[in-house]
Amino acid sequence: MRKAIAILVLMLVSALAAAQTPQFMEVYNRTLTRFDRNADTDDTSLRTSEFSGRMLRSILPDKACDSDHLVNRIEAIRQIKFSGPTHIDLYERLRKVAESEPYERITIMNIDNETVYVYTAPYKKTESEFLIFITKGEARLACDIVGDITLDDVTNLLFGRN
Amino acid sequence: MKHCTLLLLLLTAALLTGIGKAEAQSMRLGIDGIEFRSPDENQSSVYVGLPVWYSSSSFNIGRNIPTSIPAFELGWNMLSPVDYGIYEGMGYGSFLNLNNWKSTQVTVNLLNFSAFNRRRNVGISFAIGIRANNFRLDKSLTLADGEQMVTPSPIGSDLEVKKSKFTVAAIHIPVEVSFGRWDKFSIAAGGFADIVMNSHTKIKYKGGSKDKEHNFPVNFIQAGATLRLSFHSFCLYCNYTPTAIFKSGCGPKTQMWTIGIGL
C-alpha cells in the first residue's frame, strides 16, 4: 500500500513538474512504471531517457556559450525508444495522443530511410512543445522537446545541422 | 624562410584543430534518439539515456539463460537405511557402507529451457543434462552381478587397491518451479527423472591399472525431488531419490539423499 501511494505521489509530482503535456506524461509515466517493474532484467526492448536544458548545456559547453543556440532554449527532452513489437501499445497510445488536441501535425517526411512525424503543441505563452516520432523497420522513437524552439530548430536537429 | 614555414605550419594546425573542435560538438535526432558528438571523440556518439529494461519474451531456450537450474552441480550422496532383506541367511553383511565424502553426484546441465513471469520472480525451468552418481565402496570389496542379484565380491587381487566404486550414469531431466529472482535469491522446488544409460563398478589399483564391470540391474528411471536455494549464481540443493537404485529383488533396497552445490 505504501509503495502504491509512493508511486502515485511520484507520478503526480512528475506530471505537475513536467514541461510536457499531461497526455504525453501519462504515457511516459506508464513507461517508467514498466521500467520500475523490470529494472534488473536484461531486456532492452524499451528504453527512455530524459534530460533538462541545464544538462544539455553541460554536455555541450561550447554551444552553450552562444546565447541564441538551441541548447540554451530547450527546457526538457524526454524520449522513449521502442525496439521490436512488444510495447507497441504504448507507442500507439502516444500516436493517438499526438493526433488529438492540443497537438497539431506539422509534417510527415523521410530522412535517410527514417520516417519522421512532427507534431507541435503550444507551451506557456511563447514557447512550444514538439513531439517527434521516428520509425525505421521495427524500431520506433518518440521524442518530446519543450522550450523556446521553432520548427527550424527541429529540422536542424533532424538533419544534424547544429 | 624556415621560421616562416614553421609559423605557417603552426597556423594551419591551429586552424585545423579549431575547425575540428567547432564541428565536434553537435546534436542530431535520429532513430536512436538525441545523439551528442563528444568534443574529444569526433567519430563516436555519446548517448545519454536511462535504460529501461523490460521483458519482451518470457520463454527462453539455450545456455546461459535465466534459470534456477545451474549448469554444474556437485553433491554428496547418502543412503537411507539399507534393507538387506533379500540377502537374509546369505551372510553378506552390510556391504553397501559408503564413504559419503567420496560418494559424489556430478551433474552437467547442457541445455536449459525456462519461462518466467514478466517480473521474473516466478518461473519454471527445465534442463537436459548428464549425471553420474558415484558410490564409493569399501576398498576390500566390489559388486558383482550374480544370478539376477547384485552381490558383494571380495577383491582378491595381489595389487593394492586405491579405490573401489560403483557408478550409475544417466541422462538427467530436471523440472523446477522457482520463487524469487533467479539472479538474486530464489527458492526452487521440483523433481527430476534420470534415465540410466550405464552402470559399472571400477576398481583402481595403485600403479594405474583398473578393472571394470558393466550393466548392473539398476532401475532404468530414477526419479526424485529437489529443493534448491539460489544466491546469485551459487546454489545449495538437496535431492531425495525415493526410487531404489537396484531393481526390486536384485539388490539392496535403499533410497538416496544428496546435498550439494551448484554453479
What does this protein look like?
- The complex is a heterodimer of chains A (162) and B (263).
- Chain A has one domain.
- Helices cover 38% and strands 33% of the residues of chain A.
- Chain A has 6 helices and 6 strands.
- Chain B has an 8-stranded antiparallel barrel. In chain B, strands 1-2-3 form a 3-stranded antiparallel β-sheet, with no helix packed on it. Chain B has a two-stranded antiparallel sheet with strand order 8-9.
- Chain B has 2 domains: 32 residues, no CATH class; 204 residues.
- Chain B is mainly β.
- Classes of the chains: A alpha+beta (162), B mainly beta (263).
- The interface between A and B is large, with 48 and 32 residues.
SSE order and pairing:
The complex is a heterodimer of chains A (162) and B (263).
Chain A: H1 2-17, H2 22-37, E1 46-52, H3 53-59, H4 61-64, E2 74-83, H5 88-98, E3 104-111, E4 114-123, E5 127-136, E6 139-147, H6 151-158
Helix pairs in contact in A: 1-2, 2-5
Chain B: H1 2-24, E1 26-30, E2 33-37, E3 45-47, E4 59-62, E5 72-79, E6 104-116, E7 122-137, E8 141-145, E9 150-154, E10 161-180, E11 185-205, E12 210-214, E13 221-231, E14 234-241, E15 256-262
Antiparallel strand pairs in B: 1-2, 2-3, 4-6, 5-6, 5-15, 6-7, 7-10, 8-9, 10-11, 11-12, 11-13, 13-14, 14-15
Key terms:
A: 162 residues; alpha+beta; six-stranded antiparallel sheet; 38% helix; globular; B: 263 residues; 2 domains; 1 helix; 15 strands
Number of separate strands of chain B? 15
Identify the overall geometry of chain A. Answer: globular
Report mean pLDDT of chain A, rounded to a whole number. 79
Bin the helical content of chain B: under 10%
Low-confidence stretches of chain A: 7-16
Q: How would you write the strand order of the largest sheet of chain A? A: 1-2-6-5-4-3
Structural class of chain A: alpha+beta
Strand content of chain B: over 45%
Give me the Rg of chain A, rounded.
Answer: 16 Å
Mean pLDDT of chain B: 79
Largest sheet of chain A: 6 strands, antiparallel
Instruction: Tell me the fraction of residues in β-strands of chain A, as a range.
Output: 25-35%
E-strand count of chain A: 6
Name the quaternary structure. Answer: heterodimer
Note the run of SSEs of chain A as H and E.
Answer: HHEHHEHEEEEH
Structurally, how many domains make up the residues of chain A?
Answer: 1
